[in-house]
Structures are given as C-alpha cells and as structure tokens.
Amino acid sequence: MRYATVTDRFSQDQVAMPMLFRALLALTLCTAPVAADAPLAVEIVTTATVADTRSQTLTGEIVARDQLNASFPQGGRISQVLVEEGDVVDKGAPLVRMEAVQQQQALRAAEAGLSTAKADHAQAIEDLDRQTALLERGATTRIRRDSAQDALRIAEATLAQARSDLERAEKALSETVLLAPMAATVIKRAVEPGQVVGSAQPVLELALGEGIDAIFDVPEVLMTQGYPIETVSLELIDSTGPTFEGRTREISPLVDPTKGTVAITVSIIDPPSSVNYGDAVLGTATTEGPPHITLPHTAMSATADGPAVWVVDPDTMAVSVRQITIDRFETGRIIVADGLEDGTLVVARGAQLLYSGRIVRQAEITQ
C-alpha cells in the first residue's frame, strides 16, 4: 500500500512539471513583444549649420627679415674677430680682420713701381721736348724725334699700368678688413682667430635693419584646405610676456621633400623688446570657412549606396536611414556636404542596434 502511494505521487509530478514549463514558455512569449517594442535609448543630436572655424598652432623661429652672410672675397688666415653675437654695429664698422702681410708687401711694391713709372714718364717728356727743339733747329733727325715720342707713349702706358697695380694692391689690402655694409646686428659668428677661410666662405651672419619675421614649417595637408592665413597670433614659448601679432608675408611655392612641409614667413608687427633672433615662437592661425553641418563620427553608418545616418521622426520617434554626402573627415567628427537640413534629429550613438521603423528615445547623457 505504501509502495503504491509513492508511485502515484511520482506519476503526478511527471505530469505537473511539463505543464509548469509550458506555462513559463507562454509567459515568455507574451512578454517578448513588449520588450521588442520598448523605445531604444540612443543619443540624439539636432543638426545645425555652423561656421567652419579652425585654429592651428605651430612652432616657428624668430629670424631677421633681411639677412646677410658676410665673407671675404679672398682666402686667408683670420687675425681678429672684433664683434660678438648680438652686437649692434654701424655702417662701415670693422668686423673681422685677416692677416695682411702679403697684401702689405704687394702694396709697397706697387707704390715703388708707380714712383719709377712717374720718373720714367717725366724723363720721356723732357726727351721729347729736347728732340722737338733740336729738330726745329735742324740739329737732329726726325727719326730720333719720333723715337723720343714712342718712348713717351711707352712711359705713359707703364705709368697707367703702375697706377692700376697700386689700385689693385690697395683694394686687396682693404679687403683684409671686413666692414659692416650698413647698420646691422650680428646673429652668428662662424670663425675664430687663427682659422683659415676660403674665398666667399661665410664668417658672420648679419641681420640688416630692424625688420623681424617668424618662419613656420606648415604641413602640406594644411595648405590644401583653401583657407587663406592672413593674421597670426604669436607668443614666445619660454616667456610669459604678452602675445603679439604677425601677418603672412610669403608662402614658399615648394614643398620640402624630406619633411613634407611648406615654409611660411610671417612679418611681426610691433614686436616686444623680449623678442630676439633665434627664439622659438608659437603661432596660432584661425581661419573661417563656409558654414556646414558637423556630426560626431559615431553617427556615421552606411548602406550599399554609400555613407548614411539614422534620422528620427520627431512626431513618432521612429528612425529611418538617409544617404548623405561627406565633405571630409576630421578627428572625431565628419563634415556633411549634402543630405541633411538644419533641425534634423540624427542618432549620434547606438546606430548599430537600429532598423527601419524602430522607436527610439533620447538616452541620458552622462559625463
């Protein structure tokens, strides 16, 4: 009797358990459509046309607007360097001296040669005058008189040559002293006393006048955006002084093949007294382009026809896909050229969970 009772209870449990599973399955099927129809929380942005304002900051160097590499026209050994870097010199001030022993000897030889040529020329004039007087009295022959005239012509040519040699020797001696061509500032000193330099080898770098520029190596890609850079805000890197202004003066037509950059020269307007040649400077240029619609990069989707975004119907909050034309990609955002209007609701985040007609709601944005 006891065995029969246990068996009956086991049979009843076998029947009850499938019924319980069927009830749970029915409950799950009934609640699944409710979860599918619940609005999906996504991040939504409203499109608006904004001005294309860009700000780029690069590092450059302060340079002289007019520079000159001073050098000797002839080679030799440096005897004195009379200036230091940073010195301000007047026009005609001596900068560097070269050993001039040979030039001095050549000058003395030229002076002696000129004295001899002058004496020979004076003697030739006297001989010609005497022969002319004798010829008039019939005391000499015309051949001797013509010979005296030829001797005078030779003496005149010798005198001209001697004067030319003296001028050349004086110039060679003067060229052993390097003079400032105009008021200038010494930027760089490239030689020391005792050093042998060649002809036209730079010995000093001079800044002529008071004009100051800043040179920047700008990446080539920034030059292809088509926005002119006119005014640049400048500040020294290692200074807490005020900012100052510059204007673009020259843009190199060539691209540096090793760095892929373009040199831009900026003229500094009213530079502060703390600015010196060779200082590192930060230049910030702000440009204004045509207005456009900007979206975060997470809003971008795609179809077989190309780039697209999910737009939200403000009345029903249902989404649909819309094709767009992209002008360009930037860090963290995309610039839309066509396909959207101001005030359009666009899904910015969560688009991977969408399908056409899906109901969405604005998610709470946490910082």
From TrEMBL:
One Gene Ontology cellular component annotation held by this UniProt entry: efflux pump complex
InterPro entries in UniProt: RND_pump_MFP (IPR006143)
The keyword Nucleotide-binding is annotated on this UniProt entry: no
Annotated transmembrane regions: none
Keyword check for DNA repair: no
Stretches assigned to coiled coil: 145-179
GO terms of molecular function: efflux transmembrane transporter activity
Keywords annotated in UniProt: Coiled coil
Family membership noted in the UniProt record: Belongs to the membrane fusion protein (MFP) (TC 8.A.1) family.
NCBIfam families per UniProt: RND_mfp (TIGR01730)
Protein name: RND family efflux transporter, MFP subunit
Organism: Litoreibacter albidus
